[in-house]
């Protein structure tokens, strides 16, 4: 598990953390496997419906339904943080050759 990486959602500088995570992905040559959750409103990995996917890893304001669904993990609804979303980009995926 020493090659498992997750963005730090508690980082003081959220933008810097998103940039650090993107650099980490590039330095490692891409992603072999990514496991994401599917939200009740259809979002995948906090990419909310109708969100423009014009950025790499970035912070997103969560939809009320997502806040409600995730509030069970926090002391109250107001404590649910921004989400960290990741734009799927095939250039970031590892290329495997299967024989």
Structure description:
By secondary structure, the chain is α+β, with helices and mostly antiparallel strands. The protein has one domain. The chain contains two helices and two strands; from the N terminus they run αβαβ. The protein has helices at residues 14-27, 64-70, and strands at residues 58-60, 83-85. It has a two-stranded antiparallel ribbon with strand order 1-2. The protein is globular. The mean pLDDT is 75.
Layout of strands and helices, then pairs:
Layout (H helix, E strand, L loop, with lengths): L13 H14 L30 E3 L3 H7 L12 E3 L14
Antiparallel strand pairs: 1-2
What key phrases describe this protein's structure?
alpha+beta, two-stranded antiparallel sheet, 2 helices, 99 residues, single chain
Radius of gyration: 15 Å
Q: Structural class given helices, strands, pairing?
A: alpha+beta
**SSE order, as H and E?**
HEHE
What is the CA-CA span between the terminal residues?
27 Å
Number of helices: 2
Number of domains: 1
Name the overall outline.
globular
Estimate the helix proportion, in percent.
10-25%
Largest sheet: 2 strands, antiparallel
Uncertain residue ranges: none
Strand content bin: 5-15%
Average pLDDT works out at 75
> What's the count of strands?
2
Strand order of the largest sheet: 1-2
Task: Kindly summarize this structure in a few lines.
The protein has 99 residues and is α+β, with helices and mostly antiparallel strands. It contains 2 helices and 2 strands; from the N terminus they run αβαβ.
């Amino acid at each position: 598990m020493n090659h498992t990486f997750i963005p730090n959602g508690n980082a003081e500088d959220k933008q810097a953390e998103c940039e650090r995570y993107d650099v980490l992905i590039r330095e490692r040559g891409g992603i072999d496997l990514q496991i994401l959750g599917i939200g009740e409103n259809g979002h995948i990995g906090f990419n909310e419906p109708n969100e423009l996917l014009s950025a790499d890893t970035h912070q997103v304001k969560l939809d009320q339904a997502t806040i409600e669904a995730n509030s069970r993990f926090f002391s109250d609804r107001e404590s649910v943080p921004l989400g960290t979303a990741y734009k799927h980009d095939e250039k970031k995926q590892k290329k495997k050759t299967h024989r």
